[in-house]
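Structure (tokenized):
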């Protein structure tokens, strides 16, 4: 069932690519759970965090970009407030997060700096990724941090979330971040060795599933119930996160965070934990999402040279190639991109509003700041946010 052989040419290619996602991938999201970060609720585990810092420094030396999604703020806040049991009231969870986030950020900064890594704290809510403008802003910030050599430490903004907007667990957040930054792989480090055929804490005959197909319905049936009293996830949230990550083409690995040098060994190609194979290549998945799931808010028309650069050259769209703007749209919304005859040749997420685009069209990117007083991006539509029709 869960270990069914991968069938068909596309699935075979995906299986080959998933043989060693960290070795072959360049951009990695690493999510660590509360029980690991806080040593089962006893307080922030500086030794463990330092070890992850050392391993990420090694991954950076291999040319990889790493983003961390870290739980632990609520658990650390619980310890500082003297609470033995995780509260259920939202205002108490928010208070615990506010207290714990201070220590969490400080420890990551100190431990990672010891290994030559700069860090940045990024707090997100579901609204930040559901809103097109905020989605692009978050994406631009994270990609800029990676370009600067900084390791973003991402957590859900538990201090302000409500029942309507919370992610529900940081496994889901890790998958959404993988989609946000076009990650090649998501690594979920937990207190279990991976996905088993049954709960290994209750069934000694439970067997580790080393390679499965992300999204296989059988996985949800065997994933079981909740996690520890410290965190709010369980294996089921990891299975669902792998399914979500696969929709954007990212493979997922669920492995024990207590395995020695687990990230470095994965980067060397060692098989550890459970690999969830994504069926669709990363860029193909993103292009399909752009093509099928966005409501167009307007259009831009190009000159012949810009149209040719997009279609034949695989280039980003620059404002100098735009000759006309129709409709009203905001930054981050989807627009149609038309050739000189008005035929739609592409669509994508635009970096400037319709009023701003009208001001900068036919002008080189070097003049954007002088015209608008600011610059979001040098491109009007980046090629990663653009799909040809």
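Design, position by position:
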């Amino acid at each position: 069932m869960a270990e069914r052989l991968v069938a068909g040419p596309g699935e075979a290619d995906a299986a080959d690519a998933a043989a060693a996602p960290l070795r072959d991938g360049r951009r990695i999201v690493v999510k660590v759970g509360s029980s690991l970060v806080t040593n089962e609720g006893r307080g922030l585990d500086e030794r463990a965090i330092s070890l992850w810092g050392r391993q990420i420094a090694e991954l950076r030396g291999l040319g990889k970009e790493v983003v961390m999604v870290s739980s632990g703020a609520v658990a650390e806040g619980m310890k500082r407030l003297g609470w033995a049991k995780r509260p259920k009231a939202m205002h108490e969870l928010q208070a615990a997060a506010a207290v714990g986030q201070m220590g969490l950020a400080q420890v990551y900064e100190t431990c990672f700096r010891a290994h030559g890594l700069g860090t940045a704290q990024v707090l997100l809510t579901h609204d930040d990724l559901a809103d097109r403008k905020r989605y692009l802003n978050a994406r631009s910030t994270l990609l800029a941090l990676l370009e600067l050599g900084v390791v973003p430490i991402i957590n859900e903004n538990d201090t302000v979330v409500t029942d309507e907007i919370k992610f529900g667990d940081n496994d889901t957040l890790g998958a959404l971040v993988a989609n946000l930054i076009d990650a090649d792989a998501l690594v979920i480090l937990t207190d279990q060795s991976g996905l088993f055929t049954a709960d290994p804490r209750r069934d000694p005959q439970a067997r580790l599933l080393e390679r499965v197909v992300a999204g296989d319905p059988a996985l949800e049936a065997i994933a079981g119930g909740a996690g520890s009293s410290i965190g709010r996830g369980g294996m089921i949230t990891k299975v669902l996160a792998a399914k979500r990550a696969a929709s954007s083409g990212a493979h997922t690995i669920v492995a024990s965070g207590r395995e020695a040098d687990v990230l470095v060994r994965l980067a060397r190609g060692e098989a550890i934990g459970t690999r969830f194979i994504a069926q669709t290549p990363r860029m193909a998945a993103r292009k399909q999402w752009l093509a099928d799931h966005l409501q167009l808010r307007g259009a831009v028309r190009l000159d012949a040279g810009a149209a040719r650069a997009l279609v034949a050259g695989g280039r980003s769209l620059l404002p100098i190639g735009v000759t006309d703007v129709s409709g009203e749209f905001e930054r981050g919304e989807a627009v149609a991109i038309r050739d000189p005859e008005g035929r739609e040749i592409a669509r994508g997420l635009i970096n400037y509003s319709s009023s701003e685009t009208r001001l900068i069209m036919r002008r080189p990117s070097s003049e954007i700041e002088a015209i608008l007083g600011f610059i979001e991006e040098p491109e009007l539509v980046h090629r990663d946010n653009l799909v040809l029709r």
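Reviewer-requested clarification: The chain has two domains: 8-282, 294-388. The longest strand covers residues 118-124.
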